[in-house]
Amino acid sequence: MAAAAARIEGAAEHARQRASLLATATAHSGWDGDGARAFEQREHELLGRVRRAASELDDAAAALRQHGAAVRRELERRDAHLGQWLR
């Protein structure tokens, strides 16, 4: 589960990096006019969606890590209980 969580976190970071690259690439375009404003609005919406998706991926990775920890605790508890039985 930890490996899957790490891959998810990597995907979130990649999404944030791509959003940052897009924002940087278009920040100083020098465009003007109605088309430029429409593009900027769409870009702003897209960047917001990508950043929200990255945040949700981070949340999913954290939940997966928590679940993995809970499973480990339960397995350790059961191993300890079984060990008492076998003594």
Number of domain units: 1
**Count of DSSP E strands?**
0
Secondary structure tally, helices: 2
Residue stretches low in confidence (pLDDT < 50, at least 5 long) are: none
**What's the overall geometry?**
rod-shaped
- Estimated share of beta-strand residues: under 5%
**Whole-number radius of gyration?**
22 Å
Task: Describe the largest sheet.
Answer: none
Taken in chain order, the helices and strands follow as: HH
* Mean model confidence by pLDDT: 92
- What fold name goes in the CATH topology slot? Helix Hairpins
Please estimate the helix content. over 70%
Summarize the structure.
Helices cover about 90% and strands about 0% of the residues. The protein is mainly alpha-helical. It has a single domain (about 1-85), classed as Orthogonal Bundle (Helix Hairpins), CATH 1.10.287.
Descriptive account of the structure:
InterPro entries: ESAT-6-like_sf. The model has no long low-confidence stretch (mean pLDDT 92). This protein has 87 residues and is mostly helical. α1 runs antiparallel to α2 (34-86). The protein has helices spanning 2-27, 34-86. The protein is rod-shaped, with a radius of gyration of 22 Å. The protein has 2 helices and no strands. The two termini are 32 Å apart. It has a single domain (2-86), classed as Orthogonal Bundle (Helix Hairpins). The longest helix is centred in the last third of the chain and has 53 residues, at 34-86.
